[in-house]
Amino acid sequence: MKRHPDRSAVVTRLRAAGCVFAEDEADLLISAADPPERLADLVDRRAAGQPLEHLLGWAEFCGLRVGVDPGVFVPRARTALLVSAAAAATRPGAAVLDLCCGSGAAALVLAGRLRPRWLAAADLDPAAVACARRNLAHLGVPVYQGDLFDAVPPERRGRLDLVVANAPYVPTEAVPLLPPEARLHEAPVALDGGRDGLAVLRRVARGAVDWLAPGGHLAVEVSGRQVDAYRVVLTGLGLVPSVVHDEDLDATAVLGRRPG
Ligand SMILES: C[S@@+](CC[C@H](N)C(=O)[O-])C[C@H]1O[C@@H](n2cnc3c(N)ncnc32)[C@H](O)[C@@H]1O
Predict the structure, then answer these.
(1) Distance, CA 56 to ligand 1 centroid (Å)?
(2) pTM value?
(3) Which of 7, 105, 111, 206 gives 75 a disulfide partner, CB atoms 3.0 to 4.6 angstroms apart?
(4) Burial of 243 (0-12, 13-18, 19+ CB in 10 A)
(5) Pocket of ligand 1 (CB under 6 A)
(6) For the segment 229-249, what is each residue's pLDDT rounded down to a tens digit?
(7) CA angle 219, 51, 249 (to 5 degrees)
(8) Closest-lying ligand 1 atom to the alpha carbon of residue 101
(9) What is the mean pLDDT of residues 115-130?
C-alpha cells in the first residue's frame, strides 16, 4: 500500500508529543483529513492534546463506530464490561434506558444485543443529547434531555427492565489529576461525581427503585474502591447487588436487581 508522503513526519511529531500509538494515530488522522490540507491542523491539535476521537469525530466502542462531538465524553473501552453485564442480566425484548448516555454508545450496542421492545437514552448536557440523537436516529431511539429520570416520560415509571448508567464517578478532588485529554476536553459534568464520586450514582439508585419494573436491573460502572460503598447504597434501598470485575479492562460494574 502506498504511504502518505507526510506519514513519517506526522508519526515523528505525534511521538514527540507523547502519543503512544503514534503510527496508528497518524494513519487515522491522514484518513480523516478531508480535504488533505486539513492534515496539518489535525496534527497540530492532536499534538496540543485534543483527544484523537474528537478530531476524528468518532470512537470505536464494542466494535461499533460511535460519533463523538467536541466536549462530549469519549466512550471508554472499559465500559464494554458494563454493557455486557447489563445485557447478560436482561432478556431480549426488554424496556431499556441508557441514563447519562453521553454519545449514546451503550444504547447503540444494547440495541443490537437485546433488540429491546422500548429503548431510550437521556442526558443532562445538551451537547451530549445532540450527539446521541445523531447516533441513534437511524434506530428511532428517542434521546431526552434533563436531570436523570426527570427527563424520562412519566408513563415509563415502574416499567423499565434495565437502566444502564455510566454516570460520572470521579471524586471531585481527583478530577484535577485526570489526564489533560479528559480534564480539558470533556465536560466537567461528565466526570465529576462529587465528594466521594458517588453523588450522582446515589441519586441514580434512588430513582431506579421507582423506575424499575419488579425483577428489573440497574447497571452502573464504578471504580474498584467504590464497590463496597455502592453495594451498601443499593442494599439500603432494597435492591439486590452483584458485582462483576474485569482485570484486563480495569473495569468494575455493579448491578442492582429490584426484587419481585
Ligand atoms: C462518564 S460520562 C458517560 C457517557 C456515556 N454513558 C458513556 O459511557 O460514554 C457521564 C455522562 O453523564 C451525564 N450526566 C451527568 N450528570 C447528569 C445528570 N444529573 N443527569 C443526566 N445526565 C448526567 C454527563 O453529561 C455525561 O454525558
Answers:
(1) 21
(2) 0.96
(3) 105
(4) middle
(5) 73, 75, 79, 100-103, 105-106, 123-125, 128, 147-148, 166-168, 187, 189-190, 200
(6) 999 999 999 999 999 999 999
(7) 40
(8) 6
(9) 98
